[in-house]
Design a protein that fits this description.
single chain; 512 residues; Isoleucyl-tRNA Synthetase, Domain 1; 4-stranded antiparallel sheet; RNA-binding
RNA sequence: GGCGGGGUAGCUCAGUUGGUUAGAGCGCGGGACUCAUAAGCCCGAGGUCAGUGGUUCGAUCCCACUUCCCGCUACCA
């Protein structure tokens, strides 16, 4: 059984500053990466920026900058965000790097050599004001002039020399590929969209541009730059040192386990990308998951409160882990999620402060007052104790499966149930009434500590900083965190002295 | 227009391969306790499961229609 796991975020297009959608993709990818690491996998987690294309070139010109300096500046904001979000990425790739350029040109050459690319003319009705091409049925005749039906702007017939990728040829192979790999595109509803699209017929794809220069040159014809998507998608290979397919990274991690993307760029990842790769005889990735969008409640966009969608502002105000937890917990993964400051505050108070934070606090402070912070030694589990501890092994396989099938919500719900159960356990056992029964008191505390340990391990991929505060207080180092340890009931060494922890999550004062 | 998904408690959502009292979290009301971040625990109120019609012994779940919302319908990324 191979224990390698390669996960990617989209590489972000730095034409504007990072928003909540970027943060969401990254946070979820980090969640999977961290989980697989504590499951013992060798993980390669990649993120980065996609820096070529006309839009960037124009944005740079507007600012009176050369495109590269412009990209350096904006790419840095995304790099900084990856730090702010505490991402555990192994690499941060930029498409303006030499290693990437080499990789893209190499892929291009393969395609060209295999006759998958040919030179022809791109023609169509182009609207200068819309910066868009329209097909015959999208234009109409008004006052003897051809205009776009949608925008009404005048269109003109344009022809431009362009290289084409023989996408049409890959229609049937793609459909076959989807059929043989039913989980290649997830969630299922998205897969159906893609399959319908492919079934409706694929035209050859224009994969070069002459109209602007900010991109990777076509090796055989320097007047052309390579189409941004062929360029951008290849980043997933470049970071593994492609075209050197004999190096360790490539051999271990390709094909990628999962490309995590937003639903808006599904087509590029689910159609073009596997088509390019099949054509080049490179294995396509194993899975493409198109998650939903993060939306903010309509009335929440008030100017006075500021824009909820700005991840940096939210993190400054509430902290990183609360945002990570909130996004992972409350967004139904795969669907669009409505977020609001109000919901975030509720989530922090109930789930993090009252439930998890307070559980840690009440148990540890009880341990301090009664057992001088030492893990109890003389104890014996009864049926109730065993039952609550056993939940974790009973459902362990389901938990692991939920991650492998990207059922994040199952995973988080399980944690929440265990938090409720643990608080209830402490309540029902009433250790404060058992001070004369030392052995029972020891047992209740040992069980409670074990529950906190197990839950904190499970929380590590979601809220690494907070989880680590607890685990470190339990003398568990980050490197030694192992998801399999939640199956153990006596993992905490007896008599060891634990450390105090400060309040994990401060409650938000609600004023209304 | 075509294809697809959806309308379930105040809010966010789960669920039912059709079967006695439809679930969770949050919010709300009440109770007992006190280790804890006035946290936690227990109990409770709240739903004609979008509407209409049909199939069925029986439908929230199947079918048809109506209505509302959303997604996809290729070369901006």
């Amino acid at each position: 059984m191979k224990k390698d796991f390669y996960i990617t975020t989209p590489i972000y297009y730095p034409s504007a500053k990072p928003h909540m959608g970027h943060a969401y993709s990254s946070i979820v990818a980090d969640f999977f990466a961290r989980f697989k690491r504590i499951q013992g996998y060798d993980v390669f987690f990649l993120t980065g920026t996609d820096e070529h294309g006309q839009k960037i070139q124009r944005a740079a010109e507007k600012r009176g900058m050369d495109p590269k300096s412009f990209c350096d500046e904006i790419s840095k904001t995304f790099f900084d965000l990856s730090k702010t979000l505490n991402l555990s990425n192994n690499d941060f790739i930029r498409t303006t790097e030499k290693r990437h350029e080499k990789s893209v040109q190499y892929l291009w050459n393969i395609l060209e050599k295999k006759n998958e690319i040919y030179l022809s003319k791109y023609s169509g009705w182009y609207s200068v004001s819309d910066e868009a091409f329209y097909s015959d049925d999208e234009i109409e005749l008004v006052n003897d002039k051809k205009v776009s039906k949608t925008s009404g702007s005048i269109v003109e017939w344009v022809e431009e020399e362009s290289f084409f990728f023989k996408l049409s040829k890959w229609q049937e192979p793609l459909l076959k590929f989807y059929k043989e790999n039913p989980n290649f595109i997830l969630p299922e509803s998205r897969r159906n969209e893609v399959i319908n699209f492919v079934k409706s017929g694929l035209k050859d794809l224009s994969v070069s541009r002459k109209s602007f220069s900010w991109g990777i040159k076509v090796p055989s014809n320097k007047e052309h730059v390579i189409y941004v998507w062929l360029d951008a998608l290849t980043n997933y290979l470049s970071a593994l040192n492609f075209p050197d397919t004999n190096n360790k990274l490539y051999k271990s991690f390709w094909p990628a386990t999962i490309h995590l993307i937003g639903k808006d760029i599904l087509r590029f990842h689910a159609i073009y990308w596997p088509a390019f790769l099949l054509a080049a005889e490179i294995k396509p990735p194993k899975r493409v998951y198109g998650h939903g969008w993060i939306l903010s409640g309509e009335e929440k966009m008030s100017k006075s409160k500021g824009n909820i969608l700005d991840p940096i502002e939210i993190i400054n105000k509430y902290g990183l882990d609360p945002l990570r937890y909130y996004l992972i917990k409350e967004v139904s993964f795969g669907n669009d999620g409505n977020i609001s400051q109000d919901k975030l505050e509720n989530c922090i108070n109930s789930d993090l402060a009252n439930n998890y934070g307070n559980l840690c606090q009440r148990v540890i402070s009880f341990l301090e007052k009664n057992l001088e912070m030492k893990v109890p030694n003389n104890f014996e589990f009864n049926i109730d104790d065993k039952k609550i501890l056993d939940t974790f092994n009973k459902d362990f396989n389901k938990l692991v499966d939920s991650i492998d099938s990207q059922d994040i919500n199952y995973y988080v719900n399980f944690i929440q149930e265990q938090l409720f159960a643990s608080n209830k356990y402490f309540n029902d056992q009433e250790p404060w009434k058992k001070k004369e029964n030392k052995k029972r008191l020891n047992t209740i505390l040992y069980v409670s500590l074990e529950l906190i340990r197990k839950i904190s391990v499970m929380l590590y991929p979601i809220i690494p900083n907070s989880s680590l505060k607890v685990l470190k207080a339990f003398n568990i180092s980050e490197e030694s965190i192992d998801i399999n340890s939640i199956k153990l009931h006596e993992n905490l060494k007896i008599n060891q002295k634990l450390n105090k922890i400060s309040i994990l999550f401060k409650k938000i004062e609600k004023n209304d």
